[in-house]
Amino acid sequence: MKVWLLAALAIALSGTTARAADPRYPDWPCTQAKVPEISLAAVWAGPPLDHVQNKWKDDAKINALVAKLAARKTPLDEAEKSVKEFLAASGSDKTTNAKLLFAGLFDTLNAQRSQVMNGLERVSRKQREAADKIREETLQLHTLQGATPRDEAKVEALSNELIWKTRIFEDRSKVVRFVCEVPTTIDQRLFALGRVIQQEME
What we know:
Layout: H1 2-18, H2 40-43, H3 60-70, H4 76-88, H5 94-146, H6 152-179, H7 182-201
């Protein structure tokens, strides 16, 4: 009975790992559509950032603030408050500082998203390999169980190994489902902070 349950699970696992919502991204494991990068136009309606694009890295104060605001451990309301305080204290440099700050956030959060997404695709490839291995070993176990004479020690060892590998696969799948939410959370954070920066510029 255990073998057939494992066999059924292995077939189900291989199906879930092989299915990609978008054929352009065969390793993308999330139900959410993969958007490789956040578009600047989608999150910024303020003045053009062309002339400040990389200059934010040269300003130590803005660099430190960007790192704080981009960190997911910083609550969003605290991040928004920090933006308001920084821009309120900027005086005549407010517009420039606002643009530098958003340029830094845009670069940093886009890079964060890319890291998370690349990690998800790496795990997806490992999951597909694991599902193939589970399916292959389930068939081996079925053969061992039908052999005469039957080697009970081998049957028990392979059965236990399959149970262990299946558990690891399931745990990893749960983590993937959780991490799939992270790119969306980053998008929302960038949009929210961009909106506060633009409001403070007006």
